[in-house]
Amino acid sequence: LEVSNLGEKDILVLRLDLTDRSSHEAATNSVLKHFGKIDVLVNNGGRSQRSLFVDTNLDVYSAIMELNYLGTISLTKYVLNHMIQRKKGKVVTVSSVMGIMGAPLASGYCASKHALQGFFNSLRTELTDYPEISIINICPGPVQSKIIQNVFTENLAKSIENSGDQSHKMPTDRCVRLTLVSTANDLKEAWISDNPYLAVCYLWQYAPTWAWWLMNRMGKKRIQNFKSGVVSSILSPL
Predict the structure, then answer these.
(1) Residue numbers annotated as active site
(2) Which of these, 78, 93, 151, 218, is most buried using a 10 Å CB contact count?
(3) b/e for 131-151, b at 16 or more Cβ within 10 A?
């Protein structure tokens, strides 16, 4: 059993709404007032999606981008200003394997994660004068969490009824450990996933024609499952 040396002054919990961008500067200042500095920002807020594009209200796409993308870069902006003044810090963003590939029933979620990938890869090139500020993108595959219970569906008022089995997904603590290892080693991008999902990432990167063929086969089965009320993983086994 590990004993922590942290005291009450070492912990500060703030309520934060990523969609309330006007509150992000004050939240950042509250942390700075309490600790005096911010060494690491971990962007880990967001919601996924389970719906076909043809059935989905555009308000859902707007909400996904507002939360997953704009909320994340808004908070990053205020924290990064502090890191630039210190010339030191780490910005860790939990993207997804869906930030490097596409998948059915998650077009809005994939779009938001692609946006984060493009933004932070571009931001990294703007910080060449600050070699001690690291921009780190974490791309997990399926991980055990409550992400399915909280997904967007075809309209903002509807929630999903069946969250499905999570046993095949990576345990949360392993994903966290690998994220910490990636952060400590300043990796620009880390794919954190078990196979066969990890193998599909490599296919998508290095053999996209094969990846599209495979995704079409997987996607057809996944859409059939979805229409029959079965919730399956993004990359359901054939």
Answers:
(1) 109
(2) 93
(3) eebbbbbbbbbbbeeebbeeb
